[in-house]
Design a protein that fits this description.
The chain has 283 residues and is mainly α. The protein has a domain of 196 residues. Helices cover 75% and strands 0% of the residues. It has eleven helices and no strands. Helix 3 packs antiparallel against helix 8 and helix 9 runs antiparallel to helix 11. The longest helix has 33 residues. The protein is globular, with a radius of gyration of 18 Å.
Length: 283
Amino acid sequence: MYQEASNTNLLMLLHTAVYPFIAALIISLVAGKLLRASSYLGYLGGFVVGLSLIHSGLSFPPNQALDYYAVTILIGIILLLCLSLIKTPAITNSALFLLSGLSFFFLLNPVLKHTGFMMSLSWAVISSLIVMCYYLISHKTQKPYQNETRSLHNHLLPIGLMIVAGCAAPVVSIGGSLLIGQLLGAFAAAMLAYVIVGYLTKHAQNNAFVPALLILGGLITQSHVLADIPLEVMLMLSASLFVTPLVLLFTNKISHIMASQVVISGIISAFSLWLIWPESSLY
């Protein structure tokens, strides 16, 4: 019995962290070397690997809410291209609002459709507005990349998202859905590989965090809508997304920025665990 539990835990670890990390590492290297500015495909590929392993019923065209992450990834790539190629703020902001709203609608509607179209639309609009706030704040902190320097400044926003996902994973796993908790872990592992490769190869791209923000935002909102994580916990996890871009407005010191994100995300995670911890034993 203990050996079966050990094997199950090992398989869960491989699917949640190891395989997504390795896949993101390889894809980031290949994409970064061949396509130069598209190494963000690494974390997307790593997350897809984790999604296919963790969500065994993954299908395309999508049948379930989790299947729509494939659509979210496509929307994220299209949105990133729009932000890179279009220089008119009004158009880029409109594209950001509409496409991110579409992504959230697809992720949440399969669960909310029994409550009516307006409920799904409302969730999509509110979630899209949060994404827009994050983007507008972070846009003020982004500077032209200097490829000759191996600076972590180029990757602070992805690192912030990675920390939020890593701290949210145990909360969602214990309090609502092991499946979504594992996907948060896979996302964090894929982001870690992307950041490592980007730092070592000096490859970075403005707004590369945007597809990641759609994925992580979808996982956090689904943790409430799909997995019954309390609304206040979902809101605290969502608020923790803003730590890195807000601190970046006031300081460029990497240690201060990362420490702020780790400490605040850790406190929110600990408090959330206290709120949702089951009365009965986990075993």
